[in-house]
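Bumping my old thread because nobody answered last time. Still need a sequence for this structure:
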């Protein structure tokens, strides 16, 4: 599904590339973990895979099309309809309810949100275990519940690939385990997952773990 060929990314002022001439293949339906210490390049790689950041050189092929050669309009379409990203910090709108946060991807200009979108957003909240909490604002939810809202929002438009950057990093062990169980179910339902983590135990729960250091894949 995704083929990475020789990508390199260097940030201004850095003494070495964040990602250095890296190759990687990701299969459709795979649950891939990117494991490594802080500064290993795993988040930069995730951001490039999800087209949030472009590499300085190299190619990223999604179903044989080069993401790096696409227009910004096409990359926006990919992020809106095909890719989804979940961050460690949930980035929920504090003044909106859980349901309204999940509905955000359906907002386009001044077009009203359709009833079918409301129904689908409610089903997504049910699927992530938050039935009955539609009207709760983020401030009334636990950290794990907020992460579930973020996952529901990411998947509400039917994304095929979910990129998760330390989705359990700010959670206690029990809550983190519940989020991992949810991600495994999402993957079982057919969504390809690429997850950044520093936790070896969580990394083992995917199909494959790639270990990074100094911007390169070690194994």
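Sorry it took so long. Here it is:
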């Amino acid at each position: 599904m995704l083929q990475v060929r020789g990508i390199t990314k260097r940030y201004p002022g850095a003494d070495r590339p964040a990602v250095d001439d890296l190759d990687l293949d990701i299969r459709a339906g795979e649950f891939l973990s990117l494991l490594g210490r802080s500064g290993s390049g795993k988040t930069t790689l995730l951001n490039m895979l999800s087209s949030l950041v472009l590499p300085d050189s190299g190619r990223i092929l999604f179903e044989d099309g080069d993401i790096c050669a696409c227009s910004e309009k096409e990359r926006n379409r990919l992020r809106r309809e095909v890719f989804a990203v979940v961050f460690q910090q949930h980035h929920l709108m504090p003044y909106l309810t859980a349901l309204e946060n999940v509905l955000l991807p359906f907002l386009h200009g001044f077009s009203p949100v359709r009833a079918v979108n409301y129904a689908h957003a409610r089903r997504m909240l049910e699927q992530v275990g938050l039935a009955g909490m539609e009207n709760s604002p983020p401030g009334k939810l636990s950290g794990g519940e907020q992460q579930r809202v973020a996952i529901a929002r990411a998947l509400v438009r039917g994304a095929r690939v979910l990129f998760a950057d330390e989705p359990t990093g700010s959670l206690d062990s029990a809550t983190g385990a519940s989020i991992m169980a949810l991600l495994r179910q999402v993957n079982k339902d057919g969504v390809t997952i690429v997850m950044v983590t520093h936790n070896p135990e969580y990394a083992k729960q995917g199909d494959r773990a790639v270990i990074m250091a100094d911007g390169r894949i070690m194994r």
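The CA atoms of residues 81 and 159 lie 6 Å apart. Let me know if any region looks off to you.
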